[in-house]
User: Fold these one by one.
Assistant:
Number 1:
Amino acid sequence: MGRLIAMTLAYLAYLLPTAIGAQKQQHRVQHGPCSYTFILPEVDNCRPLKDYQFTDAPQRDSPPEAENDASQSKQRQDQRERPSWQERKLESLESAMENNTQWLQKLENFIQENVRSGMEEIKRSAVHTQTAAMLEMGTNLLSQSAEQTRKLTDVETQVLNQTSRLEIQLLEYSLFTNRLEKHILLQTQEISRLSDKNSFLEQRLLALEARYGRELQSLQSEKEQLQDLLERQSQLVGQLQGELESSTLNSTLLQSQQAMLTDTVQKLLTKVNHCNEVSSIPKKEPHHFRDCAEILRSGVKESGVYSIRLHNSTRDVEVFCDMTTEGGGWTVLQHRRNGSVDFHRGWKDYKMGFGEPSGEHWLGNEIIHKLTSSQEYSLHVQLKDREGNEAFSHYDRFYIDGEENNYSLHADGFSGTAGRTSSLTHTGSQFSTKDRDNDSCTCKCAQLASGGKPCLSNGAAHLPLSKAVSL
């Protein structure tokens, strides 16, 4: 192909000098993918064709001699007819066109022959080059094929080994799956059995719920009946207890009156028996004891109800004297045992006192004030619970103020096993009742202390104890 292009360029270089200095004419030829452009020479400044002799000119229809004769006759005719300048110009152009056409045909034939030969040579060289390349490529392909074959063999071996392992694992998995299926089947059977049992138990449970529901309803109705009966019995017991307390109080009162009558009769008999003897002896004033300590010193050793007369008073007061605790001689201010007396009372009751000295009672704030104002007294608080456990609190000095100071409490010198929280409140505390709360606490201590807070603190007032407060 390169040789063909070189030959074409050489031929064009041969034609170019003839076209310099004149107006150029071009002619383009397309041959396959290649295009050829030819620059044609102008014939205006060229000599006539008869001056040139072409050995390879195309064959004419008439011999040169005839042509020459025709030319000469034509010249003579031209001279005779004297043609115009345009006609001559046209004839020269036609001659040039014919000449150019001949040159183009020759050039086209030459190019086609050269192209054909060049293409054949190119094909031969290309085949040779391609054959060598193909051989080299084949060799490389064979080498690569051998290498790939070896690799494929290795891969195939690995695949076979992996396949064998997978088959073994698959077999193991299959065996394991079979065992699991058997186990699942057993579990399914067990679940089915448990489900049946659960259904049976649910049915029994429903039956039991229905039966127990009926029984519960009957028990509920019986409970309501029993509650009504219990309420009626509680009311009856309360009534009986009230009657019993009143009977006990009446019996105690009768016993006290009987004892007093007996003493009176004995005294009267004594006086009657010694009337004559006594009439000659001047009468003496009867001795009045100020407290139980004087009664003890007079020789009385038995605990009971005795009469004392307060300082600057003409009225006798009955008190209960404890002649056994801590040597005896204790004047009992308060005695609580079984709750037969209501201590939830007002200011007036606590001022004057209530209850019977032989039973549950409160001596009275006014009496305690007059008693503790006459001389120094110590206070002893004896506590006992239902199990028989005992405790006590002892104060070396004790007294309370008058009503103008709300019977304020004063106690010093504490000792004992009950502790301060189970005995008296702090010194200086004012007395409070349910209708007259004189303490500064917002807890309504008087209400918590069952109506009155004379000597015992709130804690002691609520404990289920037998309490005795004595001077």
Note: Residues 2-141 form one domain.
Number 2:
Amino acid sequence: VGMTSNLKERIKQHQSHKTWTTSRMKNLKLIFYEAFLSKKDAIRREKYLKTSKGKSSLKQIIRESIQYARVV
């Protein structure tokens, strides 16, 4: 969970292991993202997703996204 103003560049950073959080991970794939018009809204959403209730919500969103991808 995080935010960026340039999603393509952030993905490249993660895939090239230039960020310490993903340096040990391999084959990362983006499976879900949200876009916001204001930085304030993005920060609010990120903080929520890092709470236990937010983590549960995110897990459900990801499960549904994966199931949808299998159908399509």
Note: The radius of gyration is 13 Å.
